[in-house]
Amino acid sequence: MKHLVHVAALAAGLLGGAAVAVGDEDHAAGEIRKYREMLEDGNPAELMEMKGEELWRTARGPKSATLEACDLGRGPGVVDGAYAQLPRYFADTGRVQDIESRLVTCMQTLQGFSFEDATRGWYKPGSEVEALVTFVATHSKGQPIAAPVEHPEEARMLAAGGDLFFRRSGPLDFSCATCHSLEGRRIRLQDLPSFQVAKDAQASMITWPAYRVSQSAVWTMERRLIDCIRQMRWPEPAFTSDAVIAIQSYLQHQARGGVLQSPGIKR
Amino acid sequence: MRRALVLLAALSVAAPAGAESDAEALVRKAFAGATEDEWRTRLAQDETQALCSKYRNAPPPDIAAQILERERATLKLPDDGRLLGDWREGEKLAGIGTGGHIGRIQPDPPDRRKGGNCYACHKLASKEVAAGTIGPSLTGYGRLRGNSPEVVRYTYEKIQNAQAFFPCSHMPRFGYHGWLGPKEIADVAAFLLDPESPVNK
Question: CB-based contact (8 Å) between A187 and chain B?
């Protein structure tokens, strides 16, 4: 455990400068390889996974209940493989939900938390949402991405997600497609996946949620997307809003069949 | 004519023809917390943005022609007639990627300087390796094209409104949105064209 923290700190120091340095590209690549090697025997996300498992099993909230009866789509209490099949439609809420949204539903219904209490500080490193998502996602490692497109609402969200991916607005005319629809491109030195290309989409989506060395935190997919939306100079969308879920329906669909390696590790 | 087009754009934002699409309904809900000003400047689409979204940046020829005509009509040479400014200032602007971020998680201070962030998408000075590849390399731009009045004017106008030349280009319309002012556009144009600029060394 201590070892992991140490490695994370070391990696952050190493990489923090290297990745953004205006200088030798090969050097940056070399640094990244070095920290990948260092981390071979441990991803700091494991700490989050442990914290998440504890949160899952601890009786909490006004109803003093655990989350162990939470239905993530594969039946109450089934965690294995659940993340690989999200977003999906849930009859009890009448919504297509992603992992963040569904966990919040369970915190509300099973534990009695308000939406505000369940989501407070969700974007801060070490948040409960971050820990719970990491725990659940780790239990889909080795599973192929297979978000269902069976219910009409799932098909609708997938279609809307595609439209949103290409939706341009704002003072820089950006949409997701500006940065993620051309193959083999970079912003500065950062490689950009194209979600129009299956192998690219898979290579990206199989690695989430991911420990981000530069942030010293695990980022969930909503955290990632809301940051890209910030870069687009749009206002911040509501956490667990349907627009953010629809975009994930689209990304997961583009990446379907990719075998999950969650949790990943990133710059 | 120009007024008619602008009016049309404004109308289509306020009252989309027919029923609202699923995607737009989701946007309206997800950004319910945005201010009126944020809606106007960041979320509502002008006609060109709406068309490029609809055709996923590959507009059919008639739509492309319509976009070109509308965007060309927005071009405006600076009042003082200066199309080339200080390349050193332009170089700074080419590297600045901050400014204009909003929201509660990691906003910029409102007065933070906005840049063109050209390096995000283009290779410029050959010594700068941290250069993106969304757009073509512009290294040697002035050396290769020269400094004729046509080249100078094209360069200024391209930065002002990329879509006046390339409908649905991924490149932002910096002048159209007022992201860069006339003097800043001239500075960046000089960075591309000045023989002393590292772009041409």
Answer: yes
Q: What share of chain A is helix, strand, coil (3-state, %, to 5)?
A: 50, 10, 40
B 128-157 near A (Cβ less than 8 A): 128-134
Task: Give the model's pLDDT for residue A8.
Answer: 42
The dihedral formed by the CA atoms of A68, A71, A72 and A73, expressed in degrees to the nearest 10: 150
Minimum CA–CA partner of B42 in chain A: A170
Residue that the structure tokens 């700190």 belong to = A9
Locate the chain B residue with the closest alpha carbon to A226. B105
Domains of chain A by residue range: 2-42, 45-138, 152-266
| Angstrom distance (rounded) from CA B192 to CA B122 | 11
Which element (helix H / strand E) includes A88? Answer: strand A88-90
B84-141: per-residue pLDDT in tens? 999 999 999 999 999 999 999 999 999 999 999 999 999 999 999 999 999 999 999 9
Alpha-carbon separation of residue A48 from A41, A131, B105 (angstroms): 16, 5, 21
Segment A140-186, tens digit of pLDDT? 999 999 999 999 999 999 999 999 999 999 999 999 999 999 999 99
Q: Would you state the structure tokens that stand for residue A84, as one six-digit string?
A: 């690989």
What pTM, to 2 d.p., does this model score? 0.92
**CA angle, corner A205, sides to A95 and A8, nearest 5?**
115
pLDDT tens across B170-195, in order? 999 999 999 999 999 999 999 999 99
Q: Domains plus CATH for chain B?
A: 2-72 (no CATH), 87-200 (1.10.760.10)
The answer to whether the CB atoms of A244 and B30 lie below 8 A apart is yes
- Of B103, B130, B170, which is closest to A22 when you measure between CB atoms? B130
A106 is catalytic: no
Dist CA A52 CA A61 (whole Å) = 15
Query: Is domain A45-138 annotated with CATH 2.60.40.1170?
Result: no
